[in-house]
Specification:
five-stranded antiparallel β-sheet; eight-stranded parallel barrel; alpha/beta
Length: 533
Amino acid sequence: MYKKMVGFAVVFLFATAGNTYAYDVPMVTYKDVADQAWEKDYVYTLSALGIIEGYPDSRYHSQEALSREAFIKLLVATAKLDISQTSGIVPTDAIGRWSSPYIAAASERQWIDFMVNEAGELKPEQPITREEVAAVVGKYLLGKAGTAGSQWTSGEWSKERDERMFADSSKISANLAPYVFYTVNRTVMEGDNQGFRPKSGLIRSEAAAVINRLIDIEAAANKLEVTGFYAIKSSPAIGRMPLVDNVAMGWSHLEYDTEGTAKLGTDTTTYKIPEGYTDVVKSADQAHVHKDLMVFYDDGKKLSVFLRDVPAQKAFIGQLVTQLGDPAFGFSGVSLDFEGLMNASDAPNYLQFVRDVKAAIGSKTLAVSVPTDYYYKGYDLKGLSETADTLNLMAYDFTHADSKLPSAPLPLVRDGVERALKQGVPASKLVLGISKQANQWITTNGQTTTAGPSIDLVEKRLTDPNVSLTWSLPYFLKLIHYQDSSTANEIYYEDTQSIAKKIWLAKVYHLKGISLWHMGNFTASDWDTISKR
């Protein structure tokens, strides 16, 4: 692994078998944000979302006053506005500044008009006050409130003022009061025993808290579908069917060895119809769950050949249609999980194959699982999303042994989602894949090896009182340390807390839902969190 400094953040460049795998995503550790700091989770969450960056000295400078332009940048980034497409007027003293695109976006939406003085100046470097922060946030929120917003500014806001009874309410600027109290009403900001302190400055740690609360409030209203992959060893999860909306039965695979012919395999390998399948089908039907037949294949080289073999594709699709029509299963659709396409030249062929599948299955639904596009270039994400009903983004398996990079660090998961959205995949079709797994590094006599322990073994290890357990930031994964005779062990684990954070991420980006690989791995605690999505 090679490390390159960009500001203070590490960019991972992984060289493997002649290929360079690049994750140009900051993984920031802040030297001045202590483990017990109240703002720790707020700061690292915004960093994982790419909203804040910190300073080149690897510090966040939590206690420093925040400038007007810095807060405007935070809000514009939170709103996910395209700063390259804006027609807002930039105040005279902000023209040419680093912040001018953000100021233009805020100005266009009239969030900051009250900050501009008679000379047309914003004074962007001036420390922002609490009432200014509350007013900007209030304007942002009320802009989304429609008719209710008009009622609020017309007089309803005064009820909030009277109920709060801040000792210093009279010090809040009259023209800003409706917006300030709307922010208070939405619980984004609050007062203390001294009042609201409208003229006090806002430090950087407080700004992180404000933005987090704003994101949380907006995310909470978004609903998610849950797709469970019932595959491999998922029989213990048969009783969890009522907690998912869709179930993808991992009961088939592509068989392709001879040119001109292919088969939908259902009786060999891991992906086959299991004994007792009728109980699973019955359980899904009783829970009124949408049932897909999952088709798996992971030999990228053979898949590339298959995608140029039209007769083989026709034979496979014909058998798939027959299987989908079998009344013993009552499948509602198909879920394709064809992995390993690394070359861009395969993308048009795979897209055409998916189109052919969609045309052949008629009214049944089609879901397509895809990897993130860092080095798997054989998937036209936009084209696939236009064809399929759902695109399942497998935002995991980023693991890199030498650097101890685990499978699904939150900053990389977020970046994978953003890359898909920027390619034109609509959020309403995108599902965030969550893989319940653990990545272990074992060091003996200075030599380190890796392992992928089973979930059962990890959960058993967690009951050992000698295990050290921490919440690993910036990864947002559980980190387990323990000593086993002469062996030191580190395990990054996708536990209930990290799963909750990924569910939250899916809501932040207004995604269609989440998927669970695979249902049998998720613990009772995980399912409790999933049920509260």
